[in-house]
Amino acid sequence: MKRKKKSGKVTQEHLFLFLLTVVLFLASLNVAQARGLFIPDQEPIFVENGVINLNGLTIDQKISQMLIVQAEPTYVDIWSKMHLGGVHLFARQTEELFIKDINSFQNSVDIPYFVSVDLEGCLSPFGHLREFVSVSDITTQTEAFEKGVNDGAYLKKLGFNLNFAPVVDLEDSIWKCRSFQGDEKRIGELATSYVKGLQSHNVIATAKHYPGKTLVVKDPHKFLVAATIGEEDIYPYQFMNDEVQAIMVSHVISTGAVDSNGVPAVVSKPVFDQLREEYTGLLISDEIHMLGLKTFFDTVDEMYIAVFNAGNDVVLNFDRDPNEVYRMIKVVAKAVEEGKISEDQIDDSLRRIFKAKGFVVQG
User: 203 pairs with which residues across the strands?
Assistant: First the structure.
């Protein structure tokens, strides 16, 4: 009887240890998956003497280079092995942390990231570190240029090379401080002066939010937004056409001078075709998981395909799950292979991206 009890006790202990091992193993698998550790490595992208050959890139790599994602420090290796094109930083506690994180990301890749931020208007992830002049207080082109110079110097010091500013919406009735004051001509002049100052430090400026009226109806972060666009709304973009290196396209469903044909502008090919008649720089999507775009589609896969098919050169995807970012790449790659998205269009976007990063492009 004693032996049987002892044997049963040992069996129970073994069973407990076995179950505990299984639980810990499954938990570690979940953690590893959540951190994207099961995402497969891609082939390296070869850069020789500042030259990139598009024929040497896979479809996955081409799409990856068009993405800007959140700069989560724990994902340095994951984003690097996926060959993503850029990272976006939100607030950090100190300037030293900004510099440390940016250096960590840049040192992990052969093709430098776009390192982007929103330093615009009255909103800033650096507000607790220093004061910035609000664009709503700018009254002269000299002041606008000086703000651009000061913003550019500060961003360059931290390691940024892409700023999502200036805002050239003619009115800001939501935040009430993100736009320059004046009519369309005055706003065009002030914004152009700011752009020249910012880009004097090799920080790419981004005029937003094309085609306009993004800040006067409802917050597109939360709602579908529709507006009638007048010629005055697109005037600032036309005025600074030869100066600004990037334009951000918004989620507004537009009619009038820019007709998005019943869909958000950022996924409207007619909007991009019209814009491309005059503009040769980078076209950047607003963040695609904003509800002003996401709720328009039945599935995120439809949204992914539409964003690339429309003609965006750079796509902002701030999803925190690296597995979902990878899945997006595969969804879009399949659409390219099936002819739903033109690979020639993808290549044209890459030429603009690599040129903006200072590379010579072949293929």
Answer: none
Give the CA-trace dihedral at 73, 75, 79, 85, to 10 degrees: -30
DSSP 207: E
CA dist., res. 140 & res. 343, Å (int): 45
Give 74-121 pLDDT, tens digit per residue: 999 999 999 999 999 999 999 999 999 999 999 999 999 999 999 997
How far, in Å, CA of 270 to CA of 247, rounded?
Answer: 16
The gap from C-alpha 315 to its chain's centroid, in whole angstroms, comes to 5
Q: pTM (2 decimals)?
A: 0.90
Domain boundaries, the chain: 1-34, 43-362
- Nearest in space to 295 (alpha carbons), one of 244, 226, 355: 226
The per-residue pLDDT for 145 is 98
CA distance 176 to 178: 6
Sequence-distant (≥ 6) Cβ neighbours of residue 194 within 8 angstroms: 135, 138, 144, 145, 147, 148, 151, 165, 166, 205
Q: What is the pLDDT of residues 237-273, one digit of tens each?
A: 999 999 999 999 999 999 999 999 999 999 999 999 9
Q: Which two tokens stand for residue 264?
A: 């958000």
- Helix 184-199 to helix 231-239 angle (10° resolution) is 30
CATH topology of domain 43-362: TIM Barrel (3.20.20)
User: Is 273:345 a contact under the CB 8 Å cutoff?
Assistant: no
Cα–Cα distance measured from residue 349 to residue 281, given in angstroms and rounded to the nearest whole number: 10
Q: Residue 324's pLDDT band (boundaries 50, 70, 90)?
A: very high
Instruction: Look at the block and give the residue holding tokens 């969804």.
Output: 331
* Spatial contact of 314 and 286, defined as CB atoms under 8 Å apart: no
Residues belonging to the chain: 363
pLDDT in tens, 9-38: 567 776 666 665 655 554 554 555 555 677
- Does the bond joining 83 to the residue before it have cis omega, within 30 degrees of 0? no
